[in-house]
Amino acid sequence: MQVRVLRVLAAVLVLTLIGYLFRGRIQRWALPPQTPPADVAGRSSGAGSPLFTLVAGELEVPWELAFLPDSSMLITERPGRLTLIAGPRRRSYEIEGVRHVGEGGLLGLALHPGFAQNRLLYVYLTGFGGSGFRNRVVRYRLSPSGLEDRTVILDDIPAAPFHDGGRLGFGPDGFLYVTTGDATDPSYSPATQSLAGKILRVTDGGKPAPGNPFGNAVYSLGHRNPEGLVWDARGRLWATEHGRSGMESGLDELNLITAGANYGWPYYQRDAVRPGVTPPVVHSGPTYTWAPSGAAYWKDRILFGGLRGEALYEAQISEDAKMNVRVHFHAELGRIRIVKLGPDGMLYLGTSNRDGRGDARRGDDRIVRMDPEFFQRP
Ligand SMILES: [Ca+2]
To answer: What's the gap in Å between 225 CA and the centre of ligand 1?
Structure first.
């Protein structure tokens, strides 16, 4: 009897080990990359065309990038490094207290609007708190000798190995916006007193921004896992959001965000029109997945990257018609997490092929640069 129990235990152990070693392939088999429907397919970069210029390679799950006043770049790498790239020179700073588990780790990054004078930067990270995983926003001062004055400005955001949100951005109003995921507990999303499943708005010191709709840090609610934030030329805030996942994956969203609005998760999806619920401006449909992440604005377009969609999405803003989303560069770069417009007017894309769900190629992960005029060419 005891021998039998030991054999069963050994078999379970071996299967667990195999599952762990091949988890990337198993996930890829269960959730294969998506092929865009023919009616939305855009263009490839063109055979032999030098559309993409390699800016940096050999990165490990770069999540966000920011340009310093001297045009050097800061990049968060999810395992917990902040990497400064200045021409051929590269320097990495370890960020304290990062728990890189599943989708959590070192995620968003934003420079203070007064960075040129005060050298303050903000990161969003998954760490460990009293009762489990916690997401937090931490501020540092970047000095010639390294990162100083570590200050946790926003803490106790519920976290989990999945759905951690994580994008940071200073708005035209000077406040810091923070996307948070539902941490796999959808009951957080509609609750105005929970910081999970939200877009938050705080001062540069982490206090609720004056005028917030519920008197706390919450700006908008009913989100599942928003990973992209960008403002358009009219100062309007757009956010990308992951819809339902697993076997029913789809209904990814592009939302126009307003203070106090409820974006429906988990009760309303698609174009459901209900009093008090704001539907997405456009969604991916029930059978196609973008898994959208970083977003940029360029000439009346919201450009955003797709992880499982393995593409760059171009949503042309249209006031009177349904927004049209085109799919570019499908399967060329792999999973795209970062989409950022540089001070040079070029568009920067960052891959996420080493995040355990991708097909990492030699030199991954990489940041590439391209001329966004591509989107205006006939
Ligand atoms: Ca929604």
So the answer is: 10
Instruction: Return d(Cα 54, Cα 187) in angstroms, integer.
Output: 42
d(CA 369, CA 79): 24
Tens of pLDDT, residues 184-195: 999 999 999 999
Ligand 1 mean position to 35 CA, how many Å?
A: 23
Name residue 121's amino acid.
L
Q: What's the gap in Å between 75 CA and the centre of ligand 1?
A: 29
For residue 246, what are the contacts with CB-CB under 8 A and spacing of at least 6?
31
CB 149 within 8 A of CB 91: no
Contact 288, 37 (CB under 8 A): yes
In order of their start, the domains of the chain are: 35-375 (2.120.10.30)
Angle formed at CA 319 by CA 318 and CA 324, multiple of 5 degrees:
25
Whole-number Å distance, alpha carbon 15 to ligand 1 midpoint, is 38
What are 128's strand-pairing partners? Answer: 133
- How remote is the CA of residue 118 from the centroid of ligand 1, in Å? 37
Q: How many CB atoms lie within 10 A of CB 127?
A: 21
Q: Residue 36: is it exposed, middle or buried by C-beta count within 10 angstroms (0-12/13-18/19+)?
A: buried
What pLDDT shows up at residue 25? 67
Beta bridge partners of 158: 134
The residue written with tokens 């309007």 in the block is 236
Backbone dihedral region for residue 340 (phi beyond 0: left; psi -120 to 50: alpha; all else: beta): beta
CA distance 309 to 328: 10
Per-residue model confidence (pLDDT) at position 378: 75
Residues of the chain with pLDDT under 50: none
Residues with CB in 5 Å of ion ligand 1:
263-264
Q: Kindly report whether the peptide bond that precedes residue 271 is cis, defined as omega within 30 degrees of 0.
A: no
Q: How far is the CA of 50 from the centre of ligand 1 (A)?
A: 38
CA of 243 to the centre of ligand 1 (A): 7
Cα of 196 vs centre of ligand 1, distance in Å, is 15
Distance 182 CA to ligand 1 centre (A): 12
